[in-house]
Amino acid sequence: MLRCSSAKKDFKKLECDETNTGQFGQQSLLKCVIKEPDVKVRVVVWHRMSENEEPLLVFKGTVKKQVQGFRFVEPFWITNNPDLSMLINNTKMEDEGEYRCTVVTDAGEGEKTTRLEVKARYNQPTITQTKNKKTSNVASYLTCESFGGYPEGELRWFDEHDKDWTKSSNMTIKKMDNGLFKLSSWLPLLSGSTYESYTCKVYDGKGVEEGKVFFEPNKQIDPEETSPAAFVAPVVVIGSLIVGLLLLLLYRRRSQSK
């Protein structure tokens, strides 16, 4: 999000977008334009507002300084309403923060500050089921996970009737090395539960749904829990076929001997 505030009153034609959101891993635009025709731009400087305020971009007749990953949208201002905007390539979480644009023209000097907020979309969530081997009324747990998002989001659970079961779940939030978040949520399934399916949905920091996954616990087969009865039917069928073939061969041999 970009927030602008005027710093000098002798040049009021420098305007910046009030809000802007940068996407993680993509280009982010910090928009600043001079809204006055026939203005000659002499100097433009972009700073990151921090303890070490070394310039990111400097223009003085030509581009004098350009830190890697930052560049002017329009490097030479020979048109009306010059665009002084700055582009940030491959936006990272550390790019979030306050910036300042300073301009010197033949009509005066001006300055604006802006704030860039970075956003990342959460990936498609996944669900796994784990049997509960402890003695309790909980038969198993469903685990939903989603990662790669920013800012902190939320995982919510719903049954096939769209009833919200989120309050019965437990969610953890972990910040990864790249500054993005991983969300994990555990939902206990009680013994004798009659619900046939569950849906896990992931929401961004503003409560907007970004993805969902559908899961049917009763259709998941645990190899360790497979009943021996599951193997009886195939064995019986194969055995019957073998016996039938032997009887057929015996019948043919007797017929040929006659």
DSSP strand tally: 18
Total domain count: 2
CATH architecture of the largest domain: Sandwich
The radius of gyration computed from the alpha-carbon positions, rounded to a whole number of angstroms, is: 33 Å
CATH fold title of the largest domain: Immunoglobulin-like
| Proportion of strand residues | 35-45%
For the record, what is the CATH homologous superfamily label of the largest domain?
A: Immunoglobulins
- How do the strands line up in the largest sheet? 2-11-10-5-6-7
What's this model, at a glance?
The chain is mainly β. The chain contains 1 helix and 18 strands.
Task: Name a few traits of the molecule.
18 strands; Immunoglobulin-like; mainly beta; 258 residues; single chain; membrane; 6-stranded mixed beta sheet; 4-stranded antiparallel beta sheet
